[in-house]
Amino acid sequence: MVKKARIGILGASGYTGAELVRLGLRHPHFELAVLTADRKAGQAMADVFPQFAPFDLPKLVAIEGLDWRSLALDLVFCALPHGTTQLVLKELLDTAPATRVVDLSADFRLDDPAAYETWYGHPHQALSLQSEAVYGLVEIYRKEIKGARLVANPGCYTTTCELPLIPLLKRKAIEPDEIIIDAKSGMTGAGRSAKEAMLFSEVSEGFNAYGIARHRHMAELDQEFSKAAGQDVIATFTPHLVPMNRGILATIYVRLRKDRTARDLRSILAEAYDREPFVHVLPYGDMPQTRHVRGSNMAMIGVAEDRREGAAIIVSVLDNLVKGASGQAIQNANLMLGFPETAGLEQIALFP
Ligand SMILES: NC(=O)C1=CN([C@@H]2O[C@H](COP(=O)(O)OP(=O)(O)OC[C@H]3O[C@@H](n4cnc5c(N)ncnc54)[C@H](OP(=O)(O)O)[C@@H]3O)[C@@H](O)[C@H]2O)C=CC1
Ligand SMILES: CC(=O)N[C@@H](CCC(=O)OP(=O)(O)O)C(=O)O
């Protein structure tokens, strides 16, 4: 019998933390040993999220005062706000260097400390960990993730956009300087902490663009697209907030390189993801919807030709809380701990 891994979830009272608990409870090799919260520390998980009432879970505790060494956790999922995360993880890994970490925040995704400072407005406070961290886009960095101690789980928007575009840039099938991404996210992408702009009365029956030309995920897109293309790539990226709970849909406009067709793009993606359990490329011309992936760890991609000659349209969807966050984090943890990559992640989308 495989020994169960002792798992900690920091930020279990948030949306991605609760999603880690939902998936982790059904994981065959996880023992959920520690769950933390900030304002909700001291409460039972079932008091914060009644859906967990039937399950035996540890109480939510504050991070301060935890003795990482004696807890002897095999792996910690960190689902805290960016900024706070780097301080918490520095202390954790200084005290318990053998614990593995999958961080869901943006703190360790950028290779370049100067880029971090530019996009996040303050210098990074755990530089050695930043240089150690491996970017956790499993389908691209599987080998590096396996041996990593600290994995930076990619952002939800970025996962949606990088899965279709990295293989196309690597194969030089599209023009790297003519990428336009129009992305829409459900509201859980903004986290559980109440903000006026997230009230039902202010979000329902309308939708809006935000972060125009300055959303922090652009730094992550620039980094990964440039690596894939072998040259600097700056894509246009505009996020939108739509009145639904879960899901991201990115409509991506690309210009084909000479002698390439939209069908070639679909073939490249189908070949790249042929053996991947969590990326599905649809038949040419078919388009995915967010409801096709809701609650599952699946990303779906559709490709079609544009009416403009030499151009194509790609649509990519995932559930921001699963493949865009907690599901992908568990996929990373499975690789790091030597479990089957799909363990705990085989649920199918909830439809309708
Ligand atoms: N939501 C999403 O779709 C995605 C989120 N992410 C990233 O994952 C991380 C978590 O996001 P999400 O779950 O949405 O956020 P939430 O706002 O829903 O939850 C945040 C969690 O962190 C705890 N927390 C907040 N401040 C502190 C602090 N100073 N010290 C200790 N704990 C604290 C909160 O505790 P309490 O509630 O008790 O105050 C809560 O458990 C963020 O970095 C986010 O950007 C990444 C991909 C997708
Ligand atoms: C809808 C919404 O507000 N989404 C968030 C992205 C959430 C996120 O997960 O950002 P990180 O992965 O970088 O932490 C935003 O646009 O800031």
UniProtKB/TrEMBL annotation:
The keyword Iron-sulfur does not apply. This is N-acetyl-gamma-glutamyl-phosphate reductase. It is found in: Cytoplasm. Its EC number is 1.2.1.38. Catalyzes the NADPH-dependent reduction of N-acetyl-5-glutamyl phosphate to yield N-acetyl-L-glutamate 5-semialdehyde. The keyword NAD does not apply. The lineage of its organism: Bacteria, Pseudomonadati, Pseudomonadota, Alphaproteobacteria, Hyphomicrobiales. The active site is at residue 156. GO terms for cellular component: cytoplasm. GO terms for molecular function: N-acetyl-gamma-glutamyl-phosphate reductase activity; NAD binding; NADP+ binding. Belongs to the NAGSA dehydrogenase family. Type 1 subfamily. GO terms for biological process: L-arginine biosynthetic process. The gene is argC. Residues 6-148 form the Semialdehyde dehydrogenase NAD-binding domain. SUPFAM superfamilies: Glyceraldehyde-3-phosphate dehydrogenase-like, C-terminal domain, NAD(P)-binding Rossmann-fold domains. Keywords: Amino-acid biosynthesis, Arginine biosynthesis, Cytoplasm, NADP, Oxidoreductase. Its main location: cytoplasm. Pathway: Amino-acid biosynthesis; L-arginine biosynthesis; N(2)-acetyl-L-ornithine from L-glutamate: step 3/4. InterPro entries: AGPR, AGPR_AS, AGPR_dimerisation_dom, AGPR_type-1, NAD(P)-bd_dom_sf, Semialdehyde_DH_NAD-bd. It catalyses: N-acetyl-L-glutamate 5-semialdehyde + phosphate + NADP(+) = N-acetyl-L-glutamyl 5-phosphate + NADPH + H(+). NCBIfam families: argC.
